[in-house]
């Protein structure tokens, strides 16, 4: 008798697992999820990200912002002022990923590490 739980929506297919694994690995990289979370309220400057993600170095924050931009999750906008301002804004794709991670955030707040 098969005692495995059924998957009514059939999401746990081999294809779904192959598609989900790189997303989970990317989000699981150090600081990626936190930087993405810090951008949930719209456009932010580098210094605002740095303030919202304590403990991250400037070099690593720059690297993570570039990676998020390369993946199409944030957009980098240069504003030609003196001094130059750079804003990082979540893209529609980034907003979609943030929407998908909100239940995980709610779960982590309700279930803190022991």
Task: Give a quick rundown of the structure.
A three-stranded antiparallel sheet has the order 1-3-2. The chain is α+β, with helices and mostly antiparallel strands and 114 residues long.
| Number of spatially distinct domains | 1
**Count of DSSP helices?**
5
Largest sheet: 3 strands, antiparallel
CATH architecture field: Orthogonal Bundle
Describe this structure in words.
This protein is of the alpha+beta class and 114 residues long. The protein has one domain (30-110): Arc Repressor Mutant, subunit A, CATH 1.10.10.10. It is built from five helices and three strands; from the N terminus they run ααβααββα. The chain has helices spanning 14-28, 32-38, 46-52, 58-70, 92-110; strands spanning 44-45, 74-79, 85-90. The protein has a three-stranded antiparallel beta sheet with strand order 1-3-2. The longest helix is centred in the last third of the chain and has 19 residues, at 92-110. The protein starts with 13 loop residues before the first helix and ends with a helix.
């Amino acid at each position: 008798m098969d005692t495995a739980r059924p998957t009514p929506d059939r999401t746990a297919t081999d294809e779904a697992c192959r598609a989900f694994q790189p997303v989970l690995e990317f989000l699981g990289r150090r600081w990626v999820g936190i930087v993405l979370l810090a951008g949930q309220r719209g456009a932010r400057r580098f210094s605002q990200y740095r303030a919202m993600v304590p403990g991250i170095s400037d070099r690593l924050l720059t690297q993570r912002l570039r990676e998020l931009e390369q993946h199409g999750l944030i957009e980098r906008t240069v504003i030609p002022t003196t001094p130059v301002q750079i804003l990082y804004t979540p893209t529609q794709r980034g907003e979609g990923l943030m929407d998908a991670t909100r239940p995980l955030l709610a779960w982590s707040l309700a279930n803190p590490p022991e």
